[in-house]
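Q: Structure tokens for this one, please.
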Amino acid sequence: MNEKVFLKVVDNGARAMEEINTLHRQGYLPEDIFVLAHDKDRTEYLAGAADVNTITLEEEGVIKSIANMFRSRGDELRSKLEAMGCTPREAEMHEAELDRGKVIIMARARSATQRIL
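A: Here is the predicted structure, written as tokens:
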């Protein structure tokens, strides 16, 4: 993915919802906002509650998505973060935040009217 991606680490689901609402007000479309938590069920719950996306095959690509089926959760999370534009070092740092129960909100900008914070 070559698009510039906004990424913010928040402390909990309530802060994630606030950040998602802020992104909506700034013009981001629901399909361009992603949520990621360490626990898959939590990720799905937050994405469903906010009507936004999780990082899927479209963002990761077929090979990485299949490989993730055989990886540890930490390796899978780092792979997803890298698919969204993080460097391996950034992905490692953000995955450590996820290990501590934090939530990551990401958004990709598709138009000149959207700004990266």
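A few notes: Residues 112-117 have pLDDT under 50 and may be disordered. Residues 5-108 form one domain.
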